[in-house]
Amino acid sequence: MTIAESAVTSETDPGRGASGAPAPTGKTYLRIERLSKMFGTFTALHDINLEIYEGEFVCFLGPSGCGKTTLLRAIAGLDIQTSGRIEQDGQDISALPPAERDFGIVFQSYALFPNLTVAKNVAYGLENRKLSRADIRARVAELLALVGLGDQSDKYPAQLSGGQQQRVALSRAIATSPGLLLLDEPLSALDAKVRVHLRHEIRSLQQRLGVTTVMVTHDQEEALTMADRIVVMNQGVIEQIGPPVEIYRRPATAFVADFIGTMNFVPGVAEGPDRVRVGRVELECEASGIAPGAEVTIAVRPEDIVLQDVEPGDENTFEVQIGSMEFLGSFFRAELTGEAIADARLRADMSINLVRRHGLEEGRRLHVKLPRERIRVYPQSTING
């Protein structure tokens, strides 16, 4: 599944989460207010404000060093914030040590005890709560059956695959029925096929348990397919919060547009609240709040460029020439150039059937259309990488 396909699975309703069910709303379970974290003179987090609802699955998404893991560790009490407040289920936990907070956590490295069996690993937190041996055995058996490891209880971590070890870590994290589940890059150490399979298992398990969950990831596809809402972070601040489809289709900033999926960026000039110019082409789009004559960056996704049934003279239509065509398995990605758009270059995604049906090839000239509702306009900025 491509990132675009991941994002549009629930496009009919941007208020729905990755599963298609309504994104949880109502009771706020975790509230973060004006949270900042300093490491010496370095600001890792700056004035973070966030509410997470009961039963919600939220992903902290962003590049390395953006502050997402620092924020997770602040919630867990592993790195106490420099300033600000954290409230869980109505209780101020800002200064509580980790042992006094109500959460289970799963790390990227699993952190299983190598000298303990699977059953003993899962039972570890339960034993610390002084439960009876019978209750512990019943709970461990229930959890291992829940994650499909009922017949692995007597094995040691080294005898399990990476995916199985991660399931054990999950079982241990939820053994004490915590109110909050924290996942720190839980799938990044696994190979691609296992990662895809396990992310669906984790999401299904979270929905069955109804546990409020926060997951840190740098993987866009993980966030898009698993989260009810995504918190996109950059350089210690939150760039945007919203359901996956909203983040993908209506990125609030140029950073979000560039980080999530593939995006074309071309320079232009604002002509008014509903019009921009690229080269000789005037494009109808939403550009309110930007002064006429201001330099802007126009963004459009490759899959949103229309290449068929386009009539010259239609709104936002212009002629281009197909440059290179890159075969990417289920589709081609073509580079489009044209005198009308000056030096701008656009990448457009074309299905194999479309290429065959219309005989599209390098050097072919055709008219394309940029649907006005798919164009995003940002104040002129430098897009990195």
Computed structural class? alpha+beta
The CATH C-level name of the largest domain is: Alpha Beta
Supply the number of helical segments.
10
Overall mean pLDDT = 90
Instruction: Give the number of DSSP strands.
Output: 19
Beta-strand fraction estimate: 25-35%
Shape: elongated
CATH architecture of the largest domain: 3-Layer(aba) Sandwich
CATH topology of the largest domain: Rossmann fold
Q: Ends: how far apart?
A: 23 Å
Gyration radius from CA atoms, angstroms: 24 Å
* Unreliably modeled segments: 8-16, 18-22
Question: Mind explaining what this structure looks like?
Answer:
With 385 residues, the chain is of the alpha+beta class. It has two domains: 180 residues, P-loop containing nucleotide triphosphate hydrolases (Rossmann fold), CATH 3.40.50.300; 118 residues, RNA polymerase II/Efflux pump adaptor protein, barrel-sandwich hybrid domain (OB fold (Dihydrolipoamide Acetyltransferase, E2P)), CATH 2.40.50.100. Helices cover 25% and strands 31% of the residues. The strands form four sheets. The protein has a six-stranded mixed β-sheet, sandwiched between helices. The two termini are 23 Å apart.
